[in-house]
Amino acid sequence: MREKSEINGLDKNTMNASWFLSMILITSVVMGRGWLEILPASASTEHVAFGQQAREVVHQLTEKVYYVDQNHLQASNENPGTMNAPWLTIQHAADVSLPGDRIVVKAGNYSERVQVTRSGTQENPIVFRTEGAVTSRGFTIRADYIHIVGFEITDTEGVIGSNSRAQCVGVHIEGKGNEIVENNIHDTTCPGVDINAYPHDSAETSFNIVRNNKIYRAGLSGIYIYGQYNLIEGNDISHILQYAPGWINPGSGIDADGIRFFGVGHTIRGNFIHDITFDDPENVNPHIDCFQTWETAIDMLFENNVCRIPKPPPTTSFQFFMVSTEYGPVRGLTIRNNVFISDSVGYGPVNLSGLSVPIEDITIVHNTFVRTGGPGPYAIRITNAINVVIKNNIFYDHVEENWPYLYCDETDRCEGQVTGLDVGHNLVYRSEGLPGGSLWPGDLWQVDPQFVAFSDGDFHLKPESPAIDAGVDEGILSDFEGNVRPQGEGFDIGAYEFPEGPTFMDVPFDHPYHNYIDALYQEGYTAGCNVEPMMYCPERIMNRAESAVFVERGIHGAEYDPLDPIEVDFADVALDAWYADWVHGLWDDGYTAGCNADPLEYCPERLHTRAEGCVFYLRMMYGKNYQPPDPPKGYFKDVDTSAWYADWVDACWEAGIAEPCATEPDLLFCPDDGLTRAVAAYMMVKAKGLLP
What we know:
Elements: H1 12-30, H2 45-61, E1 65-68, H3 90-96, E2 102-109, E3 114-116, E4 126-136, E5 139-141, E6 146-149, E7 152-153, E8 159-160, E9 171-173, E10 179-181, E11 184-188, E12 193-195, E13 209-211, E14 214-218, E15 221-225, E16 231-233, E17 236-238, E18 247-248, E19 257-261, E20 263-264, E21 267-269, E22 272-274, E23 288-293, E24 297-303, E25 306-309, E26 318-324, E27 330-336, E28 339-342, E29 350-353, E30 359-365, E31 368-371, E32 380-383, E33 385-391, E34 394-396, E35 406-407, E36 418-424, E37 427-429, E38 444-445, E39 451-453, E40 458-461, H4 514-522, H5 544-556, H6 580-588, E41 596-597, E42 600-601, H7 610-622, H8 646-654, H9 677-688
Parallel strand pairs: 1-2, 2-4, 3-5, 4-6, 4-7, 5-9, 6-10, 7-11, 8-18, 9-12, 10-13, 11-14, 12-15, 13-16, 14-17, 15-19, 16-21, 17-22, 19-23, 20-24, 21-24, 22-25, 23-26, 24-27, 25-28, 26-29, 27-30, 28-31, 29-32, 30-33, 31-34, 32-35, 33-36, 34-37, 37-38
Antiparallel strand pairs: 39-40, 41-42
């Protein structure tokens, strides 16, 4: 029953009209019709207002979860949108949704581009969420507080010239408070996500979130950002295309960039930009940048990102940042706790170019710059700037004999190029010969930073690293992984602070799986097995219920929270079991057939074997329909080639996610042994590519 306070302020006539229209509305909803359909043509604005009020009253009294399922035999947009009588199209759901509605889209290939114009509210957003594998042609959102979660978005519309990108991008946003989370966006004609605003720094597009999406083979850039105070976090961006199929006559300036940013106040955090490469035939001659802007970009934070530049042809150049003031001011950029990796020895710096006006107030601190292929030119280039801070960074092979780590167009100390330059306390190392240039105050010069595993891409600091406690206080109180700074007597140089102790008490630094377990924790996939003290229980065997959590989060992302099931499919999974929603999600996503067919059972308490782990993690890596090649190769002596899992174990080994249980005198896998939480962490990190 509704409380009286919820209807205070309505006079008797309004209440009577609302009650009457509510009754009509209930009938029309059951019949699949909206309230406007049953109002007479002569209805006044006052009647319409009463009707809308009635619609909202009924909405508060009825279930707010609706279903779209094009594969359901009775699916129709005339239905009420229940699980047993679902709607046919996502577009219909968008057309009738109200604040607080949760639209659950069941598995299927929905060949529709969804136009969203109805808004939610900050307290009650409208959520479009998948249950199972759902493919669509994307969303154009011209509304506020819309959440898009878990879709595969591909095959967007084509475009000619430089016309509006609203229909050719994966997700187009004009509005406030929208969230695009844990989607797989690929093979789009234009950028994967486009946050648009007119003018480009307008507050009308603001406070949107783009988080934990995988974006690849998108045209022009992975993400394009305008507006104000948007958050771009945890996205994996790769294989961006200069000339994407479907974009006809794209015009000049077409490139293949990671993230293009314009506007005010954005936070760009924890993204992984990699493998934008000339190996893709669509990339003819792009100038590839991880981050780029050339007009208004004010007060933005770039932190905890990884940008990896592949080895290009010798005549091309890549850049970590390409920042210029060609068409507007750039000021207040903070670049901290990032890892910049170049597999090339060519040009590829953070490039700051003041053109129409000077670039102002730039802070570059606590970053790790690494070249993996040998020494190359400078890490940072600056022209025409005011107030620049460059401190506490590691520059590994970003120097040559005639090139310092900071370059200002022929001037040794940036005289005449930068006013208010504060440089120092950086660690500089050249692996072949002496670095060019000269020391700035407090620099550690030609000192090996002592990375944990340079060849494996692990740029954490060893206990003996000279970078530990060698930095200065720049007010940065956490590192790349969120660890508190400082841990010791001073601030460490580089993106990683050396911890005084391990994350989990039972996983010391020298534990063989420490880096993998810690990567799962840092990425938010696990909180361990105990809180105080924090423990992971690495040797504990996982049961099938725990594995459901690992796999579902591996599929959908670290912050995935499955829907509470209305019913469960397995006879041995109680609806109120803590794992019921996870197991139901695993079944609905098509990643498990259970442990028994008649009756259908999951065996949640049964211990997971290492062989079963191969099935789960290979499908996490390649998709639910993956089948390993047959016949098996017989890599492991203890894996009989006639066993049901033989081809899975061999495929696991070829994919680089299998961890042998012994290597001497023979290679062994121990397929029937229990899968420990430590080995599960190893396999999941490998499958997800969480470590560089």
